[in-house]
Amino acid sequence: MSHQKLEIQTAAAAAFAASAARLLADRHCGDVLLLDVTTLSQVCDFVLIGTGTSDRQMKSVADELAVLGKEAGLPAFRKSVDTGATWIVTDFVTVVAHLFEPQLRAYYDLEDLWVDARRVELESGPEQPQ
After folding, report:
1. Which of 7, 13, 26, 118 is most buried, by CB atoms within 10 Å?
2. What pTM was estimated for this model as a whole?
3. What's the CATH number where 58 sits?
4. What is the β-pairing status of strands 87-91 and 78-81?
C-alpha cells in the first residue's frame, strides 16, 4: 500500500473516530475517551471508550455508531454484545468502540491497558439531532 493511501486512510479513521466520540458525548455517554493507539497497536488506530447509563441506551448508541460508520465508508466489521448488554464492542477495523456499564468499565480498566496511548481531545461541536 502506498504511503499516500495509508495517510488518507488514517485521516479518514481519525475523522470517523472524532465523529464517533462526539456521538457518544451527544447521546449522554459518560467519560468518553478517544485514544490514538497508532504507534502501540497493530490491530487498530483508535480506541473509543464510553460509559452508558442503561442497556437500552448502549444498544441504541451502538446502532447509531454502525450507521455513522457505514455513512463514513467504514462499516462495522463485527459487533459483540455480552448477555446483559453491559459491554458492547463494535469493531470498525481502524477504530474499536467500547461501550460499558460503569462497574464493568472500572473492572476492565482499558484506560490503564492503553496508558501509553495519546488521548485525543474531543472538540465540542453542535449537538446531533435526537
Report:
1. 13
2. 0.88
3. 3.30.460.10
4. antiparallel
